[in-house]
Predict the structure.
Amino acid sequence: MHAPSPTAAEMLIRKLQANFDIGDRERDAVLAVPMSIRSYGADQDIAREGDRPSQCCLVLSGALYRYQVLASGRKQIFSLHIAGDIPDLQSLHLDTMDHNLATLQPSTVAFLQHHVVRDLMVQYPRIAAAFWRETLIDAAIGRAWMASIGRRSAIGRVAHLICEIASKAMAVGLTNGQNLDLSFTQEELGDALGLSTVHINRTMQSLRRSRLVATQGRVLTILDWAGLTEVAEFDPAYLHLRAPPATAQ
Amino acid sequence: MHAPSPTAAEMLIRKLQANFDIGDRERDAVLAVPMSIRSYGADQDIAREGDRPSQCCLVLSGALYRYQVLASGRKQIFSLHIAGDIPDLQSLHLDTMDHNLATLQPSTVAFLQHHVVRDLMVQYPRIAAAFWRETLIDAAIGRAWMASIGRRSAIGRVAHLICEIASKAMAVGLTNGQNLDLSFTQEELGDALGLSTVHINRTMQSLRRSRLVATQGRVLTILDWAGLTEVAEFDPAYLHLRAPPATAQ
DNA sequence: CGTCAGTTTGACCTAGTTCAAGGCCAGTGG
DNA sequence: CCACTGGCCTTGAACTAGGTCAAACTGACG
């Protein structure tokens, strides 16, 4: 257990700021939270199905995702988490993990002991409310994914996910709304959207041909935000952002 | 606002019991919560996308479901809620509804004012934790649906949903584990599982032909629980039931 | 320069969709 | 008591979105 890292605590404070106007005493309390920082390479499991974690993790850099592998070997990705997110807050109240948490890219995360988080929440109910709210937004995003997978065409699904990632990245200042780091490989996109790798590839080509996006490597450029939101049927309300997302262009 | 109905408060207490051993003072506090009871016919919206509810609702009898209609007109059902559930707890912290809540069958529900629930949670942190936990289980069930829709075949999806409904109904004593009220029409099953009505029909026939289930009207009989869980790849861990589900047979 | 992860392509295939028509049954009104 | 609805379930035939398999291509990196 290291001394609290200022940047990690700052990240947490920024996250809480997105929920309510944090007070001085709350800020001080958060700054005093002990966190242990750890770096991971790409594609490493941080928590596994069946684990009973005693801490939860705050993403400092990189990207994590949550997933499950069915008995048939097929994989489903449930969510993507970028800097500032706490992907496994649910472990505070559900003792056994029902899915896996892994890195998508090389990432650094800060671990917070459950009992420390619990103490913090008892002392500062607004922090507790903010954490609860985070898990609820997570669920809302999950519902949007479900609607996508269940009821959208392949092109709509991919477009919707791009819109979502762009909106989230914008909200934390990780993009100007034009270029963004699409952390997923095409295989992972397929596992997130319930499609095969081959079909993701063809769908991306179709998005490029329609001049909605361009790609170079894993960096994606949004060429036509209005067009993209239209094929995605994208309505950002479900993200429950405090400020409406300043859309590209 | 009526006087608190004993049965409604009892339902709430039973729900909380599923999370922790409730104390006398907590019990008394719950019994004192004012609730207004209301009955609905089938297929009626209780809350709509865009609403900003000031109360949340406890299901007393019947069944509710949450859903969204995409711009294309296609419908996705996110969850099913039976007696004892509080389907819109998330409205405590997300002020705008991002989906609809409706009755599947004629149902009675009890409404609890948000501010009353908030007061209760401030006084009794274990109740707050139990409510939070409920929303987390809801999210876990959502992930299981997502995995189903994304990565299971039609027959696996239908079988999985039947296993889930049976397990949940058993946990609250609404079934002996053999016969259960499959509240969904085939059209609604399709909207829940991302399939067409026609294909749901053919899939149900296939389940019947394999002697896994039988149906008469909307009552479904599970003939072969082991076989059903196998085609469903069903593992009830994600339901986070306190007691492991006593499976049929 | 070889290797390996990821992307792209082509050919073929199938699970699930769509559309359109019937059938069943419970409720209603005459 | 019967005819007439209106939901819901069932069937058939034709179709297509997306899957599968297998091979080739690209680029980064040791």
User: Anything to note?
Assistant: Chain B has a mean pLDDT of 93. Residues 125-151 of chain B form the longest helix (27 residues). The radius of gyration of chain B is 18 Å.
